Amino acid sequence: MISFDEAVALVRQLSQPLATEQVPLDRAAGRVLARPVVAPRTAPAFPTSAMDGYAVRDSDLAQAPVKLRVAGESYAGRPFGKRAGPGTCVRIFTGAVVPPGFDRVVIQEQVGQSNGLAFFDRTPSGGRHIRPVGSDFFAGEAILPAGIVLTPQALIAAAGADVGEVCAVRQPRIAILATGDELAVPGTAHLRAGAVPDSVSVGIAALAEAFGGAVVLRLRIPDTLEALESGADEALACSDIVVVTGGASVGERDYARDMFRGHAMQPVFSKVAMKPGKPVWMSRAGARLVVGLPGNPGSALVTARLFLAPLVAGLSGRGAGLAWQWQSARLGENAPEVGDRETFYRGQLHEGRAVFVGNQDSSAQAALGVSRILIRRAAGAGVLPEGREVSFLPL
Ligand SMILES: Nc1nc2c(c(=O)[nH]1)N[C@H]1C(S)=C(S)[C@@H](COP(=O)(O)OP(=O)(O)OC[C@H]3O[C@@H](n4cnc5c(N)ncnc54)[C@H](O)[C@@H]3O)O[C@H]1N2
Ligand code: MOO
């Protein structure tokens, strides 16, 4: 059995980004950029009208009021395309190319029009309502740096540079194997004596996706070695990280490690001196990683948040550290004495103060459901009075 900090160090070492790949922009949301996005094109690529109105020459409007012949129209996507000399104006709309020679756009609210003539009653001043070429960015400019997550706003910027695909870190593929004869699809457990809803895989799948993973396989497997071995084969064939829930402890039908016996496995750790979650384990199977979570829902969630989330974040290119951003808060109540394992209590923040949810049993799901933080306390620590600082991680 190793300490929590030793386990963190081992997970950190294994949390290196996967290879990179070209990804079409419409499938790149949430992915991490592996190379900067360099604009292949200047934007705006042409002088662009910012308003609906009339493109004019300042020299023609110096002596307002004045009437100018409307030489034609320039719409967004349908430029005027001809030459329009002095003494004329061009009807123009937002987003349209401003024809060469014109200095400004006068908004239509300030212009009268009849019989092909536009009336300007005063000399315009102030904004020209023309966006110059390159006023957003120039071709060759790195508009998004490597390492960022492709947010909706980053996708707009990349697409706006006329980019169709980006170089991104490959997304970690996660397979979740929930083991146990008792497990049933949530919503159906009441139909079979002794059945228990498979609650854990629902939460673990959501957690893996929240930290940048793609869940590619979810199986519920009964406790027979044959079924478990075939689940292990299937999972290793299609994923980067296999998560096994349950069967981690010492029970007679706890096969979570044996199910991988046909594969060359290198243990990373087995058992961590922590509460809950002592039976958590991790192994390597070639380039794949296998994470074994204890079956109790509280233990599974806590160990997944502390070890699986950083691993997924690391492989996805976000960096494992994203999942280990410890914060501190004052206690809103006394914290109890800690046993001989480093302990992670489920809690909440009330007016900025850390409090514990009532039921800390590792099988408790109602209390787990409303917890928002994990409060960390060292093994063997005594009672800590209300008002003292504790370290916590958001859930
Ligand atoms: N003699 C010992 N018994 C146990 C020990 C020990 O050290 N000596 N460790 C205990 C601890 S700590 C934990 S945590 C559990 C972990 O057990 P397993 O990982 O082997 O999990 P299971 O036995 O399969 O299940 C435990 C518990 O959790 C429920 N479960 C399992 N999977 C799910 C799921 N996907 N969704 C919802 N609930 C699940 C299962 O029904 C059991 O109630 O072992 C202690 N025992
Ligand atoms: O790892 Mo177990 O969490 O103490 O129930």
TrEMBL record:
<dbReference type="InterPro" id="IPR036688">
    <property type="entry name" value="MoeA_C_domain_IV_sf"/>
</dbReference>
<keyword id="KW-0479">Metal-binding</keyword>
<feature type="domain" description="MoaB/Mog">
    <location>
        <begin position="175"/>
        <end position="314"/>
    </location>
</feature>
<comment type="function">
    <text>Catalyzes the insertion of molybdate into adenylated molybdopterin with the concomitant release of AMP.</text>
</comment>
<dbReference type="InterPro" id="IPR001453">
    <property type="entry name" value="MoaB/Mog_dom"/>
</dbReference>
<keyword id="KW-0460">Magnesium</keyword>
<dbReference type="InterPro" id="IPR036425">
    <property type="entry name" value="MoaB/Mog-like_dom_sf"/>
</dbReference>
<protein>
    <recommendedName>
        <fullName>Molybdopterin molybdenumtransferase</fullName>
        <ecNumber>2.10.1.1</ecNumber>
    </recommendedName>
</protein>
<dbReference type="Pfam" id="PF00994">
    <property type="entry name" value="MoCF_biosynth"/>
</dbReference>
<dbReference type="InterPro" id="IPR005110">
    <property type="entry name" value="MoeA_linker/N"/>
</dbReference>
<dbReference type="Pfam" id="PF03453">
    <property type="entry name" value="MoeA_N"/>
</dbReference>
<dbReference type="InterPro" id="IPR036135">
    <property type="entry name" value="MoeA_linker/N_sf"/>
</dbReference>
<dbReference type="InterPro" id="IPR038987">
    <property type="entry name" value="MoeA-like"/>
</dbReference>
<comment type="pathway">
    <text>Cofactor biosynthesis; molybdopterin biosynthesis.</text>
</comment>
<comment type="similarity">
    <text>Belongs to the MoeA family.</text>
</comment>
<keyword id="KW-0500">Molybdenum</keyword>
<keyword id="KW-0501">Molybdenum cofactor biosynthesis</keyword>
<dbReference type="GO" id="GO:0061599">
    <property type="term" value="F:molybdopterin molybdotransferase activity"/>
</dbReference>
<keyword id="KW-0808">Transferase</keyword>
